[in-house]
Amino acid sequence: MLTITAIKAFNDNYIWVLQQQPQTQVYVVDPGDANVVIDYLEANQLTLAGILLTHHHNDHTGGVAELQAYSQDQLTVFGPDNEKIKGITHPLHAAAQPRLTLDYMSSELQVLAVPGHTAGHIAYVIDDALFCGDTLFSGGCGRLFEGTPAQMLNSLQQLAQLPADTRVYCAHEYTLSNLKFALAVNPNNRALQDYNERAIQLSRQEKATIPSTIALERAINPFLRASDTEIVDSIKQHFSDLNHANLDELSSFTLLRQWKDNF
After folding, report:
1. 261 belongs to an annotated ligand binding site
2. Measured between alpha carbons, how far is 4 from 260 in angstroms, rounded to an integer?
């Protein structure tokens, strides 16, 4: 059985720990902070087998060097091959290596190219779990620091095509903030209203809203629903000079991301 555990880091980051029971060797996804990972390993008598990186931002990679120094063995570090991340031992290109076999793991890892937030961002799927870094958030998506709107839309559409019960393990607890924007652009979405109430209750109980699921995100995430009639109408009302424009999905997505950037 694969267990997935969250280690909280910084203000709102999640570092995900993958453990194939009953193994004591684990992998971590996007360890921006080595100290919290080491504390977790030692408290649970676990050994770090490797690291999976989604992109180059320091809050996802900042702990790699220290974890390599901490590990007694040569630590395997996977990550995108075109983002020049120090410490990667196994650079990945999704088109050339779409599947990974990891020591101590019974299932293969699928590697997906999901550029947009950064130029070389990748995601990983194992069993019914998606580790998508800063591409897809619950109720939102990552900012476009390096990629284009077309790239990000294509990446999100690729993730949206995963099985409905796929659990979404993103790297930040941004859900409540994202849902405020989602409700502003899609106020009559009952599934979104219900999810917002659940997320508020979880927050009050100091519980995580992550993981989400692909089914839920298809229903409530405006960035997966940019062609929805109400969302398009909201975009036109917000950008008043577009009242009579015919917006295709990419145009709607681009304006939606621009609106969220300044929300």
Report:
1. no
2. 30
Write out pLDDT tens, residues 132-170: 999 999 999 999 999 999 999 999 999 999 999 999 999
Q: How far apart are alpha carbons 185 and 21 in whole angstroms? A: 43
134 is in an annotated binding site: yes
Q: How far is CA 158 from CA 60, 100, 140, in A?
A: 22, 19, 15
238 marked among binding-site residues: no
Distance CA 236, CA 256 (A): 10
| pTM of structure | 0.96
Segment (H or E) for 9: strand 2-9
117 annotated to bind ligand: yes
- Number of neighbours of residue 91 by Cβ within 10 angstroms: 17
Q: How far apart are CA 30 and CA 58, in angstroms?
A: 9
CA distances to 55, 60, 227 from 171, rounded to whole Å, are 11, 8, 26
Residue pair 137/156 in contact by the 8 Å Cβ criterion = no
